[in-house]
Amino acid sequence: MARPFHLGVAASHRLFDPSLQGLDILRDVIGRWASGLDITRLGSLAACVGAAPAAWRFLRAAWREVYGWVRQFFISSVTIPARDPLNRHVTNWIVANVVQHRSIRSFTARTQQAGAADRAALLKKTRRDVQYLPHFETVWFWHDGCLFVARRPSEGFNASAADPASDGIGGEELIIGCLGRSTEPIRRLIQNCQDYADKHSQYFVIIYSRDRYGMTWQPKSRKPIRRLETVHFDDRLKHELLADIRKYLDPKTKRLYQSRSMPYRRGYLFYGPPGTGKSSLSTALAGEFGLDLYEVRIPSVANDQDLEQMFQEIPPRCLVLLEDIDAIWVNREPLDDEKNGKARSNCTLSGLLNVLDGVGSPEGRIVIMTTNKPDRLDNALIRPGRIDMKVMLGNISPKSAEQMFLRMFMPDADGSLLPPSAEDKNTISEDGKPLIDHGRLRKLASEFAAQIPENTFTPSQLQGFFQLHLDDPIEAASHISSWVERELSGISSDDDIEIVGNGHANGHANGYANGYVNGHAR
Ligand SMILES: Nc1ncnc2c1ncn2[C@@H]1O[C@H](COP(=O)(O)OP(=O)(O)OP(=O)(O)O)[C@@H](O)[C@H]1O
Question: Does any ligand 1 atom lie closer than 6 A to the CB of residue 89?
Fold first, then answer.
């Protein structure tokens, strides 16, 4: 007799396989439900499902209608245009104080933008980081006892997302509504958003530049404040400059200017060889006085109308940095630079004078002009009233080199270079380098400075040297003499070094000093 061997195995499988058991149960349930199913009930169920989209459309239209009425009669609103700086402040506040406190499931993902200083990274084909930002179109929230709604039309979002220069914040129109007939709560909310923005930018300098189409001012970067002590130049001159700006920004001075019918403006000229700190000093001053910095690169301004438009859009209390001012047209004759193929601006001198102190030029700003070629500047441009103080930033002195050495090797936050107590002297750091106490560091700094010839190297050259020895002050002090020798031999054979004033390559700063006396033009 044949034994049902195979059947027995299959049966035992059915018994122990949970998925097959589950199928059986499901089949059983469906069977029972189908046997008691009434075909008319099935028809009405299908009709309901078919009518659902139409019902949904009707409800949406009704809601829009009702919401329109509510908006018209019960909601006051303020519209903030796309790309206005205020738009960014309010959007940031909403994201940080409303959207992020809810469980966010909607983000926009954008390729992380490289900073403008990092142009090389933009050109590389390396994969860049992705930046995720919380996304919202309409958001309701309570603030200060009032109910608000913030809306961003999605069409605006798409337009701003398509612009690679936008960082995804504040690029679309923003409408803030509030339940009630007064806009006062919205004004209070906007004030709050501005205070929030100020608080978050107090440790940074915001640098604005024109967008890539030259149409609007856009925040280009947010740099941590650079302390003035980190920009090395003549101490006396530094104090004078600081005192002058401080006095100018004092509200009392403004009243004095106004009562004497004098235009409330102040202009400074920073001049000197490339790499002596003209831009660094301007950024440090913006940080010191809590001002935003508006950067105008004269060679890239298309014409006088553009320059005028740019100036009209700059707010009253800020620092305007006009870089490479010598690129301005004086009498429409091509200068050496142009013959050599270097960029020159299409702006004219009269166009520039007009924006600096023409009839419609607003007051209260600080204008800083920088140049490597002060002898090229027209007298009209640098007369008192337009330039109130000239500051020469020259090659580094041994004293400044000593300060720079100490700044480079003073203990940073983790205190790794200097031992906390005298007993730690001569101990060895984790990477095997000897730790150095303050006294020894000062001695090394003065030995280092003794090797630096007066008025020969730019601070940026010296910074380049420090970058090679950042973690070892002893090595820096011992290598400096050979570096100086090498650089000096390089300087004497380099015919391309810019010659200003007296026509000798080695006389960089001397050349500047010939034409201009350090300090005041007054
Ligand atoms: N006086 C200085 N003190 C400290 N660092 C300086 C100084 N001058 C230049 N540097 C350093 O050198 C680099 C270039 O400086 P910066 O761009 O400010 O010079 P610049 O005079 O504006 O040059 P350019 O005329 O080419 O625009 C910066 O990294 C800065 O830190």
Answer: no
Residue 282 CB less than 6 A away from ligand 1:
no
Residue whose CB lies within 8 A of the most ligand 1 atoms, among 463, 465, 467, 470, for a mutation test: 463
Query: CB–CB of 205/283 below 8 Å?
Result: yes
DSSP 202-258: TTEEEEEEE-TTSSSEEEEEEEEPPPGGGS-S-HHHHHHHHHHHHHHHSHHHHHHHH
Residue 405 has a pLDDT of 92
Name the pTM for this structure: 0.68
CB of 280 closer than 6 angstroms to any ligand 1 atom: yes
- Most informative mutation of 227, 237, 276, 462 for ligand 1 (most atoms within 8 A of CB): 276
> DSSP H helical segments within 264-365, as ranges?
278-288, 304-312, 336-339, 349-357
Residue with the nearest Cα to atom 17 of ligand 1?
Answer: 279
Which of the residue ranges 65-69, 102-106, 396-400, 431-435 has the most confident prediction, judged by mean pLDDT? Answer: 396-400
Cβ atoms of 283 and 207 within 8 Å: the answer is: yes
Sign of the Cα pseudo-torsion (38, 43, 48, 50, in order): positive
Helix (H) or strand (E) holding 268: strand 266-271
Q: Over the range 244-266, which residues count as b (16 or more CB within 10 Å of their CB) and which as e?
A: bbeebbeeeeeeebeeeeeebbb
With cut-offs at 50, 70 and 90, classify the pLDDT of residue 157: low
Nearest Cα residue to atom 26 of ligand 1: 274
Q: State if residue 231 touches ligand 1 by the CB under 6 angstroms criterion.
A: yes
In this predicted structure, the answer to whether residue 35 has a pLDDT above a threshold of 50 is yes
CATH homologous superfamily for the domain 218-393 = P-loop containing nucleotide triphosphate hydrolases (3.40.50.300)
pLDDT-derived band at 431 (thresholds 50, 70, 90) equals low
Please check the confidence at residue 273 and state whether its pLDDT lies above 90. yes
For 480, other C-beta atoms within 10 Å of its C-beta total: 22
Calculate how far, in angstroms, residue 57's C-alpha sits from the geometric centre of ligand 1. Answer: 63
CA of residue 273 to ligand 1 center, whole Å: 10
**242: β partners:** none
How confident is the prediction for the chain on average, in pLDDT?
A: 78
Distance CA 275, CA 280 (A): 9
pLDDT of residue 268: 95
Q: Tell how far the Cα of 317 is from the centroid of ligand 1, in angstroms.
A: 25
Residue ranges of the chain that CATH labels 3.40.50.300: 218-393
**CA-nearest residue, atom 13 of ligand 1:** 460
